[in-house]
Amino acid sequence: MGHRTEPETRTPCTPDWTRAPVPFPWAEWFGRAAPIRLEVGFGNGEFLITLAARHPDRNWVGIEASRTSVLKTASRWERHGSPPVRLLHGDAYLLLLLGFGPRTVEAVYFNCPDPWFKKRHHKHRLLQPGMVELLANRLSDGGELWVVTDTQEFRDHLLEVLPGSGFLEPASGSWYVEKLPEGYPVTKYMREGLAAGRTLYCFHGRKVRHAEPDPLDYARRFHLVESLARYTEAVRLRVLEQLRQAGALMEPHPACP
Fold this sequence. Notes:
Blueprint: H1 26-30, E1 36-40, H2 46-54, E2 59-64, H3 67-79, E3 85-89, H4 92-99, E4 105-111, H5 129-138, E5 139-149, H6 152-165, E6 168-170, E7 176-177, H7 188-195, E8 201-207, H8 215-221, H9 224-227, H10 233-245
Parallel strand pairs: 1-2, 1-4, 2-3, 4-5
Antiparallel strand pairs: 5-8, 6-8, 7-8
């Protein structure tokens, strides 16, 4: 049986994105229109829930591949007074394509993404050039990208990818600093890294040029159709239709009905 794309226990903060139109109906899901801020890979939800509680005038969205993390964060959301947060369980490459229209996201956060140390695994790293291009489409003009890592290898990866994109520039004098800015929530993983003597590298970029990526090329580059094999048949067919709506599926395709 394929993997599910949503927690078994549905809450207001975990909408079923596989049944939604593309892009997703954020104003309907939040019950209001407000600027969107997004965290990719929210883990236990500490960072996301903290910022949503501080800034309830924003709509906060989280993307997470781990179903267990989504369930734990949904519980944290209820315990902290149900701040304006919506959680999406699934693949980040897929959900960034389907869920958001051009210039609709005010800021995006990546906190300690998996560095995938082995060279043969580098293709699995988030923030590949194709993702940065899509982010430069989804971010509003002047929108912000924040990335925190505690590994030199991923720091060096970012120093190649971000300046090389041409879509972003440092928000301040340099691409990164070796500390978190005042008020930036410190996650459990960050605290453990600091206790172990690791350095936190905080990147802060700002969008300066709009991108127009080709959805078909993006879907092929990141094997989005092939990735749907992990889902149940019913879910897979719904997501294939969403890919069609996003212009990311050319028919006929062997995975299509």
